[in-house]
From TrEMBL:
Keyword entries, A-Z: Cytoplasm, Methyltransferase, RNA-binding, rRNA processing, S-adenosyl-L-methionine, Transferase
Organism name: Thermococcus siculi
Xref: Pfam families: RrnaAD (PF00398)
EC number: 2.1.1.-
InterPro entries: KsgA/Erm, rRNA_Ade_diMease-like_C, rRNA_Ade_Mease_Trfase_CS, rRNA_Ade_methylase_Trfase_N, rRNA_adenine_dimethylase, SAM-dependent_MTases_sf
NCBIfam families: ksgA
GO cellular component terms, A-Z: cytoplasm
Family as reported in the entry's similarity comment: Belongs to the class I-like SAM-binding methyltransferase superfamily. rRNA adenine N(6)-methyltransferase family. RsmA subfamily.
PROSITE patterns hit by this protein: RRNA_A_DIMETH (PS01131), SAM_RNA_A_N6_MT (PS51689)
N-terminal signal peptide: none
Keyword Transport: no
Function: Specifically dimethylates two adjacent adenosines in the loop of a conserved hairpin near the 3'-end of 16S rRNA in the 30S particle. May play a critical role in biogenesis of 30S subunits.
Name listed for the protein in its UniProt record: Probable ribosomal RNA small subunit methyltransferase A
Length: 276
């Protein structure tokens, strides 16, 4: 596998494009473990973001019924189409943040780190059974942070509202070519059953987490413009906002349920708009 990768790199005189987060996996064990973790069978349709030179795609194609691999770099798309003859892989050329997703039930990817945040939020809008994803370590740690942790952020809250996330392995820089500047980690993401998922007002979450160390009251005051309220409008609803649930709590201690409660209160009092 490692040989094949370097053979392709030299055959096509390929320079990795760091703007596209091109750090290719060169350790077969990691690929095998991630394919195992995805618990694949013939019944599965897997989405892979950024197949690169196809090492993970190749392993996925042997276990899954179908693999959809979305790749933005047209050089790599050409190489994949020339070098492999997979009967069950569809290479989709395009930006994974923009192209329409095909139908899938699992995701396995070594993600380009530049799009970690938007692609994760995009995944969470879809229904799937399980995702096995490689992220930069710091990002992965934020994904699994709990309310009150020092790195608990908007991302941690939004992930927690929709899914269970577990960090199952740390990966050193040496597992990739070219070597990235930071370590990585594997996350298993499983969406919660629909009845347990919490719909949150994204503007409210942004407004609160803009000031994650402040109290809820103070964050709302400082971010009123993010709730689409002018200073004047905010002044009018000030008395109401003083009664907001968890008003004296620090933002970084809020659970998704707490934010839901705050949102419900503000909607009931007409301070923010209904969820669309
Ligand atoms: C970290 S590399 C992973 C490559 C390969 N899967 C591996 O593990 O060796 C990320 C891949 O994502 C591709 N990529 C970057 N941005 C993308 C985007 N917006 N949409 C789709 N693919 C993207 C890169 O060209 C690269 O092939």
């Amino acid at each position: 596998m490692r040989d094949r990768l370097f053979y392709l790199i030299s055959k096509y005189n390929l320079k990795a494009n760091s703007d596209l987060g091109q750090n290719f996996l060169i350790v077969p064990d990691i690929i095998e473990r991630n394919v195992e973790r995805a618990e694949l069978s013939e019944k599965d349709a897997v989405l892979e973001i950024g197949p690169g030179l196809g090492v993970l795609t190749d392993a996925l194609s042997k276990k899954a019924g179908k693999v959809y691999a979305i790749e933005k770099d047209s050089r790599l798309v050409k190489i994949l189409r020339t070098e492999y003859d997979w009967p069950n892989v569809e290479i989709i050329e395009g930006d994974a943040l923009k192209v329409e997703f095909p139908e899938f039930n699992k995701i396995v990817s070594n993600l380009p780190y530049q799009i970690s945040s938007p692609i994760t939020f995009r995944f969470l809008k879809h229904d799937f059974e399980r995702a096995v994803l490689i992220y930069q370590l710091e990002f992965a740690q934020r994904m699994v942070a709990k309310p009150g942790d020092k790195n608990y952020s908007r991302l941690s809250l939004m992930v927690r509202a929709k899914a269970r996330a577990e960090l199952v392995e740390r990966i050193g820089k040496g597992a990739f070519w070219p070597r990235p500047k930071v370590d990585s980690a594997v996350i298993i993401l499983e969406p919660k059953p629909p009845s347990e998922r919490i719909e949150l007002d994204e503007n409210l979450v942004r407004a609160l987490f803009q000031h994650r160390r402040s109290t809820v009251l103070s964050a709302l005051k400082k971010s009123h413009h993010m709730l689409r309220l002018t200073k004047e409008e905010f002044r009018k609803v000030r008395e109401v906002i003083l009664k907001v649930p968890h008003g004296e709590e620090r933002v970084f201690r809020l659970s998704p349920e707490d934010v839901e409660e705050i949102g419900e209160f503000l909607r009931r009092e007409g301070v923010i708009r209904p969820l669309s």
